[in-house]
Every structure is written in C-alpha cells, then in structure tokens.
Give the backbone structure.
Amino acid sequence: MDNAASDLVTILLVAVHAAIVIAALLIIPRRRKPTAAMAWLLLIALLPYVGIILFLLIGSFRLPKKRRDAQTRVDAIIAERVGDRTEPVEAATWPRWFQRLVDQNLRLTALPAVGGNTATLLGDYQASIDAMAAEIDTATTFVHVEFFIVAWDETTRGFFAAMERAVTRGVTVRLLADHLPSAKIPGSKESFAELDRIGVKWAWMLPVMPLKGKYQRPDLRNHRKLVVVDGHVAYMGSQNLIARTYDSPKNIKRGLQWQELMTRLTGPVVASVNSVFLSDWMIETGELLESEHVPGTELIRDDPPDALVCQVVPSGPGYPTENNLRMFLSLIYGATEKVIITSPYFVPDEAMVYAITTACQRGLEVQLFVSEQADQWLVGHAQRSYYSDLLEAGVRIFMYPAPYILHAKHMSIDDDIAFIGSSNMDIRSFSLNAESSLLVRGASFVRGMRAVEQGYRDAGRELTLEQWRQEPVKSTFFDGLARLTSAVN
C-alpha cells in the first residue's frame, strides 16, 4: 500500500472514530445519570468499536415499549381497583415526611399503604421454604409463586410436592421464573419438566428468545421473590427457590451458603403482593386473571395486636423512574436517630452515598451489614471501594463471616419504620432489575428486625477504619477499577 492510500485509510479511520464519538455525545447522555454517561463515553472514546457493540447490546436500560405500555395498563387497573381506598387510621399520627413518602410511593406504583397487617420474619433457610410449602397445603383456590431462580432439588423438593398436592386438590398453581438465571442452573430442564408433570401453569419472565421474537437487553432481570396463597397469606423477601448453595459446583467447592430473610404477611397488604404477581403474569402471558384478584377490602378484619401499616413498592425498568431508590433516599433523609442497612451487593450511586454520609453528619447512628466474602469478584471489589468513604464519615460496617453470603436485603429506620424485600442497595437493583420492596411502619416489626441485626453482629466482626487502611495496594487498585465499571448501566 503506497503512502497516499495509507493516509486515506488513516483519515477514514479517524473520521469514523470521530463520527462514533459525536454520535455517542448526542445519544448517550439522554436520560442517563452523568456517571453512567461518562463511563460509556470513556469506553467508546478509548475502544470505539468494542464500546459501540457493547452499547448496542446493553446500552438501553429500559424494557421494550410493548412491555412498558403493559406496565402502564397494569398500573391503571390497579389504580382503579384501589381508587376508593381510605388511609389507615394511624395516618393521623405519622410524621409529615412519612406521609409524603407514602404518597410518593402511591403515585409511582398505584399501590396504597394499608393498615391491619401482621408480618413475621423468617431467617432459617430450610424452615422458610418449608413454611411456604405448608402454606400451600392449606390452599383451596389458587397459589401464586414468583422467584428469580427456581430449581427442583433436595431443599425445594417439599415445596414442589406441596404444589403437586394442591393441583391434585383442584387448586390452580401458577409460577413465574426469570428465564436466564433459572435456565442456567444445573438440572433446570428436569426442574421445569417436573412443573409440567405436576400440572403447574408456569411462564418465563423476561425471556431472551430472539428467534421467537422475545428479546430485550439480556441483563434486565425480574429479581422478585414472592408467594401468595388464596390471596390471604403472602411471603416476600430475599430468598430464591433453590438450595442454599444455589446448586453451583463452584459454590459447593468454596463452601458458600446463602443467608436470607423472608417475611410472612397477612391482612390487606396481601392484595398488593398479589397485584405484583398478577401484573407480571399479565405482562408475560397476556392473561388478565380477574378471578384471582382479591380486593384488599375483603382482607380487612379487626386489627390484630401490634397491627402494622404496610405498603408494597414494586420497581424496575418497566417504570419511568427508580421507585425503590427514591423510597430508600426518603427513608434515610427522614430518619432522626438510626439507619441500619443490610445489603449483599452494596454498590450505591452518588445520591445514596450522600444520603448515608449526610445522616452521619446529622449525628445519626448509621450501620451497614455486608458479607466478609463476596460471591462475585467484580461486585465484591466495587462494594469495597466505598468502605473508606463510609468509615471516614462514621458509618459502622459489620462483616458477616465466610463461608456465608449475607443475601438478606432490609433497612430499619429509628424504632418504628423498616423495609424488606428483594432489592439490593446497588445500581443494578435501582435501574436494571424488577424488584419488590415492602415498607413497614410498626415498632413490633422493627424490634424483630433489631433481633436479626444483633444476630449478624454476634456472628461477624466490625471493620474499623484502621483495619481498612492496612488493605494491600493491589486490592485497592481492583476496587477502583471495579467501581468504574459499575457505573456502566
């Protein structure tokens, strides 16, 4: 190739690179947080062809328009059903900020706060699954099951058997499972063949099947975990329907076991949990299950002792905004004495970091529970990158001991407000995952959560700033690198 041709190729490559960067500057910053936009622009500027391919694959953090429109229709149906709602009698005693938070959640999700509920915390892994199976054995009408990951193994065999007994009694059992995470579990074909055999009606959530016209950004996931029995009892929280090792040879080799927290609910809030399932079922199958909708008014009874006010807050890429993040920020800024956070994957955005460190500067007691050992290398290092800032601000960080992965997701505020659900305190849960959170107001529930938190302290150790400053430079380098990549969403 002569010099003129070589110069022409160089000019063309430079022109193409410039065109890609200019196009990226026009497209990427739209409706995207500055840190995420900068991460994408930096990647495309340094590696234009790799960057543009990745952006085309995973650059859109919204679901396809058809799915978003379906979510809007579902919200309208829910709003119509709860249009005649009345505020809980306790509302007159709420702090003004909490009333505003409840109103915010209602506007974003169409689901109201309701009183007269009970909630029981379940922290034993096998006992939690067994309790849900026992509940299914009481079903007379329908059972709704929705989990991020579903597997038929020694841990869940009793749950599957309970579903089979329910189907045999004439109960309709429906199950939703997220496609890619469940399909990659060893023995997944056998698990879903078992569902077919016993007569469970099931469907994939967010299936990635481009040849069948079912496709969206492949790492957008439905991360919810819930069970509803007859519309009268519900379970929700952090636990998946799978063994404590996630049936992974790698986890078994490392000795990893997951520690979870679920809650059993009765009262009008069960109708809201059921609405989340009915919404997801309609979006995935097109079926509107009117006969399996139970109005919350039918679940109202004389207030049980220590009755709780509860509000379900679904979130995810089907919504125009980050419902869970907005609730978490409001909770932290509304706190007056104490904020205690438990999250297995703690990779917050700037707003969350500012809220937490500002709480310390306001004189609040702030604690964070995380795992000592990470199950994901990249997320683990990204999480560690925040420890220095948090410790310097005054956050007390407690490390749950290996080989356990503290997978529970909850927060307690002062002595009477809490949240529990499927949502991590990370950018993925804020933007990319469909999550379900439960806001609870009630001192008895928070006392139960305090006992759980004390169990974490007793089992683990506190990380001090002096200890953290002794971390090797190599780890600090990987922490910073992982933090940069976490902004690409």
In short: The two ends are 42 Å apart (CA to CA). The chain has a mean pLDDT of 89.
